[in-house]
Amino acid sequence: xxxxxxxxxxxxxxxxxxxxxxxxxxxxxxxxxxxxxxxxxxxxxxxxxxxxxxxxxxxxxxxxxxxxxxxxxxxxxxxxxxxxxxxxxxxxxxxxxxxxxxxxxxxxxxxxxxxxxxxxxxxxxxxxxxxxxxxxxxxxxxxxxxxxxxxxxxxxxxxxxxxxxxxxxxxxxxxxxxxxxxxxxxxxxxxxxxxxxxxxxxxxxxxxxxxxxxxxxxxxxxxxxxxxxxxxxxxxxxxxxxxxx
Amino acid sequence: xxxxxxxxxxxxxxxxxxxxxxxxxxxxxxxxxxxxxxxxxxxxxxxxxxxxxxxxxxxxxxxxxxxxxxxxxxxxxxxxxxxxxxxxxxxxxxxxxxxxxxxxxxxxxxxxxxxxxxxxxxxxxxxxxxxxxxxxxxxxxxxxxxxxxxxxxxxxxxxxxxxxxxxxxxxxxxxxxxxxxxxxxxxxxxxxxxxxxxxxxxxxxxxxxxxxxxxxxxxxxxxxxxxxxxxxxxxxxxxxxxxxx
DNA sequence: GTTAGCTAGTGTAAAAATTACACAAAGCCA
DNA sequence: TGGCTTTGTGTAATTTTTACACTAGCTAAC
Lengths: 245, 245
Fold this sequence. Notes:
The structure is a homodimer.
Chain A: E1 9-22, E2 25-33, E3 42-43, E4 46-48, H1 55-67, E5 75-80, E6 91-99, E7 113-120, H2 131-148, H3 152-155, H4 162-173, H5 179-188, E8 192-198, E9 208-212, H6 214-222, H7 236-243
Parallel strand pairs in A: 1-6
Antiparallel strand pairs in A: 1-2, 1-4, 2-3, 2-7, 5-6, 8-9
The structure holds a DNA duplex.
């Protein structure tokens, strides 16, 4: 360093958008800030990047420091650099996102964060800084991703039912899907392994449990496989008749 | 400012990947560097972001300063932040890309650049810094974009033939397309206006000229329109027989 | 002015993918 | 045993995609 002391320098951060899925609801992991500005407000887990640290490494480190979550695959989404996005000076931030199985992790907020908690994406209240905008951008990315990669499996527990999988897709795409067509499509990918087990403790016919065929998926990815899921929004007309009661 | 003087700061740049299309070839606009490091080497047009300047504005300004090109729509692609990507210190760069009609612009390199010139994407020699990687990322983005938006029109002159359009798609997708199916698909979008004119000065049957229906396209975009172009690679088997001569 | 050479322009049939749609089966519980 | 709830399944109609080959129209060379 030293050569660049004369050049324009800015503070530089990463912000992580971690999605999970629980109780039929798409969630995002937030921290309650323990520092000014926005002390006590909910925000995305993010912090400064060290000068000698790769961007991707910083995202992983910051996530662990603020929430206790480690060992996840983070994907870069977009960089936000509006001049006034931070009240204390010029701060440019790179947004990363990830999909995790909520049940696999225990949340442990570090000193800088007062608290770390899952929040329903559909109902999050205003966040600190421009984090609403960042969250929105990552949600759009997720929506796109769900159509080109079977991301569902990354959010569900190891064993899941087809109905759970469908609900996940519906939550992400914010639409309803046809049960039979959804199953046909999913099963035709040949990426699900029937575990020959059924749900327990439900007050109705128990559903079959499946797991994701990780091995086959990796092979398909190599071959440049692209998963397509498109389905028109159903029953728009019928729903309107409910409103008019 | 001032509050953040204690925090980790890095130098911060933008790099622009400007694509054009000419003589059946996909091109990228490069400058020859007039500064160390990589003095005299070809590189993407990029430079520092001012402290009081939005990221997107910086990309536009830097592009104009280095190449004379202004008034283009730049889209953010990805941020590159490996620790050692710049020999003189920590420099994080945001890559932007754009598609322009080569004939609409005159290239005028500024003092910092020795030269600015279009280079064929397929044959660019090694570039300064990690610019090969950045170019590759933007090319991948373009490949993706071409399937979901009729970007072709942004690269061609106002009047073009269907064959020119097809060659452009083939150059971007690095594949061959079936003439009849391509035309059927493109015309079915109903975004082309037949100009009732034909090519001049060609030594064969002249092709009809079309222009792009900008107005209709904007309307379709609002409705959440998504253009799909998929076509299998043709004639793989037949080509192999050539090799075996 | 005839012809050779080149690219433009066009249709159809087969296959594949998508969509819409309704009821019997299985387990739990009262 | 019957009622409740959710699971699990097939088919026909429609749309989209794919593969494929010859005539039309112009220039240039002879």
